[in-house]
Design a protein that fits this description.
With about 260 residues, the protein is α+β, with helices and mostly antiparallel strands. About 45% of the residues lie in helices and about 20% in strands. The strands form 2 sheets. The protein has a 6-stranded antiparallel sheet, with helices on both faces. A two-stranded antiparallel ribbon has the order 1-2. A hairpin with a 2-residue loop joins strand 1 and strand 2. Helix 7 packs across helix 8 and helix 7 packs across helix 9. The chain is elongated and about 70 Å long.
């Protein structure tokens, strides 16, 4: 039985009231309490409570502690209309959550040929940090983010190999067979970790971000000084990076197993 049938309200009127609730949320006010929603809509308190409850149940709204915000389900359904328009804006919450969960700088990368570019950053609050800037361009084969591109996109691997595997530090992998072994391991694990492959004293952990049709569209990761991010920390950090990348993928409309 539909929400309208349960409440005795005609279906069209129910849709109008649902729209009233959803239109309360804005960029400047993304999270609202039930009282705020009731005041903004002008609906009776009991009616508004019932509508909000139904919207949460159906995935149009999500609970956020004592408030509500537009649901990830609604974001996913709307993705065909927003896909490709603003990846940075859509994935920003996932980037910030990863920074807060790990305490380290989180970055979002996209690929251009044999290179990866930083397109979004959530900076660490530590005074000592690994420096990143939006627009930074780096080779694919040196560092965890680039290797994720190569592991999940054959065109990325081909571009990197064709360009040449130059050595940045003593730890940079320039042997194609060894690199392919690492790429296979990355696909099995679902993430990559690297230590001093591009810069001395720098470490990172990265995971893939998928788009609406299941293709790799970006890579999300954290970077930190090796004093704070060591091989023994990967077991703790990697699940947080993978979870953030999965969140970013959902925000871009990806549905695991749908493709």
């Amino acid at each position: 039985m539909s929400a309208g049938e349960k409440s005795g309200i005609p279906p069209i009127l129910v849709l109008q009231k649902f729209r009233q609730v959803l239109e309360c949320f804005t960029i400047t006010e993304p999270c609202l309490t039930l009282q705020q929603i009731t005041r903004k809509t002008g609906l009776p308190g009991s009616t508004c409570q019932r509508l909000v409850h139904n919207l949460v149940r159906e995935g149009f709204l999500d609970r956020d502690e004592d408030g509500y915000r537009i649901g990830l389900g609604l974001v996913r359904w709307a993705a065909p209309g927003t896909f490709g328009l603003d990846m940075v804006r859509l994935t920003r919450p996932a980037l910030q959550d990863l920074r807060d969960a790990t305490g380290e700088t989180a970055c979002l990368y996209v690929r251009d040929g044999a290179y990866r570019t930083v397109v979004s950053i959530a900076d660490t609050h530590h005074v000592v940090m690994r420096l990143f800037m939006v627009g930074m361009v780096m080779a694919l084969h040196a560092g965890s983010a680039g290797k994720v591109f190569m592991a999940y996109d054959p065109l990325a691997r081909s571009a990197a190999v064709s360009h040449g595997l130059s050595r940045h530090t003593a730890r940079t992998i320039v042997d194609i067979d060894l690199l392919d072994q690492q790429l296979e391991e990355i696909r099995k694990l679902g993430y990559a970790a690297s230590f001093e492959e591009r810069d001395l004293g720098a470490a990172s952990v990265s995971a893939p971000v998928f788009g609406l049709t299941g293709e790799l569209v970006a890579v999300l990761g954290v970077g930190a000084p090796t004093q704070r991010l060591t091989p023994s920390d990967v077991g703790t950090v990697a699940p947080k990076v993978v979870a953030a990348a999965e969140d970013a993928s959902r925000r871009l409309g990806h549905r695991p197993g749908a493709h």
